[in-house]
Amino acid sequence: MIDDVLGLVVLAIISGVIQAAALGETLEPSGIVVIVAKALVFLVAAIVLGSYLSPRVFRHALALRAKGIVLALSLGFCFGLAWLAGVAGLAPIVGAFAASLVLEERRGEVGLIFAGIGASLVLGGHAVVSPDTYAAAVFMVFVTTMATPPLLLWSLRRDATQQKPA
Fold first, then answer.
1. pTM for this structure?
2. Rounded to an integer, what distance in angstroms lies between the CA atom of residue 71 and that of residue 78?
3. Least packed by Cβ within 10 Å: which of 47, 86, 117, 132?
């Protein structure tokens, strides 16, 4: 999780530098400090508050036993944090990432976040991440996300059979 958070902070800085360069400006060191501080404060606040509130809210939602309520609540939680991140002057994806940390659903989204933001950044009239590179990143995230659970299960079963006494 720490590497994902650091990656998002680096992404926020790179996005700020590219956006400033696109305007013919430079991003001052104080601007970088502000970006990092906002991102870290937002993530910590979202995780602390979300870790306290989400179990209680989801427990009540599960008690309703209504079809789709947990999915709708999860999406609402994600969109709400994305909106709050936008209000705070951060990329909405920071809020969505914070929601995924709180909900403990992190399977490949950081790679998609990086690729998506890179594809949306433009410098000198060209996308920072080309469509081909974006497609390759999405493909790799998909493959590694789908392959990891069965490979992990296979590895754990293999280790368990090797450790049994003969």
1. 0.62
2. 11
3. 132
